[in-house]
From TrEMBL:
UniProt entry tagged with the keyword Cell division: no
Family statement: Belongs to the complex I subunit 2 family.
Record's subcellular location: Cell membrane; Endomembrane system; Membrane
GO cellular component: endomembrane system; plasma membrane
Catalytic activity: a quinone + NADH + 5 H(+)(in) = a quinol + NAD(+) + 4 H(+)(out)
Organism: Persicimonas caeni
Name assigned to this protein: NADH-quinone oxidoreductase subunit N
Enzyme kind, highest EC tier: translocase
One term of GO molecular function: NADH dehydrogenase (ubiquinone) activity
Domain NADH:quinone oxidoreductase/Mrp antiporter transmembrane: 143-451
Length: 549
């Protein structure tokens, strides 16, 4: 009771404390992206009708480049506490995801102008939608309060609903937007109801205070019996919202239709930046507010970690098996993204089993980075061949294109090898780290469930090699059935080449990016005391490594 009164008093005082100048740094990355979006709208107003708008992609990419530069300048100037009375964190974890989202936005927009022109939809709104979505992603990565998180979640999501239906003259795009919007609104409502339940139980929406209050409630035997059901329901509702956004089973049904109907460069952004943002918030919310040690129970005794364990297993099985049966490459990549969500959850489950394993989340971050460049590149190649009425989306339509367009064939080969987890590509290293994390946790805890999950993920990953290599078989070993005219431009070519180079670089020399991922996890703010002790040990290890160098 005393603890509750002290927290309430601290909240009241915090509201009266004006923000310090340093706190405004927390707004800088998201603000730069939002201002760029507004400038794109303003410039587009004065654009001459029926003239090329490709320069808007370059302008938007420059704005995101400035965002990346700001993150680099803030990297060693993060805040130790949440800014604006506990609403927003500024730590290396937030900054790394801001860089990832901005990079995905840059590459996606550079791939877009020729594709949009071919589909008679060369409009400035396209770039504005991506920019606002990136700003929302940055907000949820640094959210310290569920209200901040939900606002950022919707700022990230609503532009993507519009982006899915951007090709207004294509019935598949309208269908994709409608399905995505309806299911997305439903999942957001579930999440909001879970947030409301937590507020009713704890009297706060601050992530750290929710964790403190839930610990107090569940430690009190008199109130725990009546409250445990509400806590579990709230956690499951919030979990379901996250599961929808990362496209994991059983909230995956929207994925294949939305990926098929949406503009191909936009799908690349949707499949990477949106998934990365959702995972960033997932780690933040569940680590800070729902300490796994206080919500024990379930099949294996790990509480909500058990739920994610089953979701991960179901995602890798369904995603890979259904992908094998697809004839449309975009649908194949959609089911593949479901499987990849399962692989990422393998690492998250391992890192969440106990507080001492928290630093294993660096494997999750690294996997998201490797997955982003490989998947963006693959959709970029499909967009390259995506002329209106002549697109190459099925396996048969890709016949012979590898020899006819050697650069695109080589890049697609790199992306498919990476997705399949074949060395020396980034996908191999990413999978190696998340699978090893699960095996290490299984060995430490003596719980075979984690090792079994890793074995299942490896077996399904081997099955996935079939449908990835099938793309290359058609591109190099089948005769062309019709003439394909690519919607080529230099920006798209450079973006695809950059994705290919980074996919190889991360597979051959992953050390630098792994170091950034470890720094981001070690600088993670708001963690409970049990996790904070592990973070301090991680800081000491990093300092020792720097001293040795």
């Amino acid at each position: 009771m005393l603890n509750t009164l002290l927290v309430s008093k601290f909240n009241a005082l915090a509201l009266l404390t004006p923000p310090q100048i340093a706190e405004y740094d927390a707004l800088v990355p998201a603000a730069i992206v939002a201002i760029t979006a507004l400038m794109v709208i303003l410039v587009d107003v004065f654009h001459k009708v029926d003239t090329d708008r490709s320069y808007l992609a370059t302008f938007s990419a420059i704005g995101l480049g400035v965002t990346i530069l700001s993150c680099w300048m803030l990297w060693d100037n993060t805040l130790d506490t949440a800014a604006f009375s506990g609403m927003l964190y500024l730590d290396k974890y937030t900054l790394l995801f801001a860089v990832l989202g901005s990079a995905a936005g840059i590459l996606s927009m550079l791939m877009s102008p020729a594709y949009l022109k071919s589909h008679l939809m060369d409009r400035g709104e396209y770039y504005m939608l991506i920019l606002f979505s990136v700003s929302g992603m940055i907000i949820i990565a640094g959210a310290a309060d569920l209200l901040t998180f939900f606002v950022g979640f919707e700022v990230m999501s609503i532009p993507i609903y519009c982006l899915a239906g951007f090709l207004r003259k294509d019935s598949r795009s309208a269908e994709a937007a409608m399905k995505y919007f309806i299911l997305g609104a439903f999942s957001a409502a579930l999440m909001l109801y879970g947030i409301a339940l937590l507020y009713g139980l704890t009297g706060t929406t601050n992530l750290e205070y929710i964790g403190l209050h839930l610990t107090e409630i569940l430690a009190n035997e008199a109130s725990a019996g009546a409250s445990i059901g509400m806590v579990v329901l709230a956690v499951l509702l919030i979990l379901s919202g996250f599961a929808f956004k990362v496209a994991s089973v059983p909230f995956h049904v929207w994925t294949p239709d939305v990926y098929t109907g949406s503009p191909t460069p936009g799908v690349g952004f949707m499949a990477t930046a949106i998934k990365a943002g959702a995972f960033a918030a997932l780690v933040r919310v569940f680590t800070i507010s729902f300490d796994a040690t206080m919500l024990r129970g379930g099949f294996f005794g790990y509480g909500w970690v058990d739920v994610f364990l089953f979701i991960a297993a179901a995602s890798v099985i369904l995603g890979n098996l259904v992908a094998i049966t697809q004839n449309n490459v975009k649908r194949m990549l959609a089911y593949s993204s479901i499987a990849h969500a399962g692989y990422i959850l393998v690492g998250f489950v391992a890192a969440s089993a106990r507080p001492e394993f928290f630093l294993l989340n660096d494997a999750v971050i690294f996997y998201l980075i490797t997955y982003s460049f490989g998947t963006l590149g693959a959709f970029g190649v499909l967009a390259w061949f995506g002329r209106r009425g002549e697109s190459a989306e099925t396996y048969d339509e890709l016949n012979g294109l590898g020899f006819k367009y050697p650069m695109m064939g080589l890049c697609m080969g790199i992306f498919m090898f990476s997705s399949a987890g074949i060395p020396p590509t980034a996908g191999f290293v990413g999978k190696l780290y998340v699978f090893r994390a699960a095996v290490d946790v299984g060995a430490e805890t003596g719980e075979f469930a984690f090792i079994g999950l890793a074995i299942l993920a490896v077996l399904t990953s081997v099955a996935g090699v079939y449908y990835y290599l099938r793309v290359l078989v058609h591109m190099y070993m089948k005769k062309a059935t019709r003439e394909i005219r690519p919607v080529a431009n230099n920006g798209a070519k450079w973006a695809i080449a950059i994705c290919a180079v980074l996919t190889l670089y991360l597979g051959i020399l992953p050390g630098q990016v792994l170091g950034w991922a470890r720094e981001a996890i070690v600088d993670f703010q708001g963690a409970p005391a049990s996790v904070q002790q592990v973070i301090e040990l991680g800081e000491q290890e990093l300092e020792a490594l720097e001293a040795a160098e």
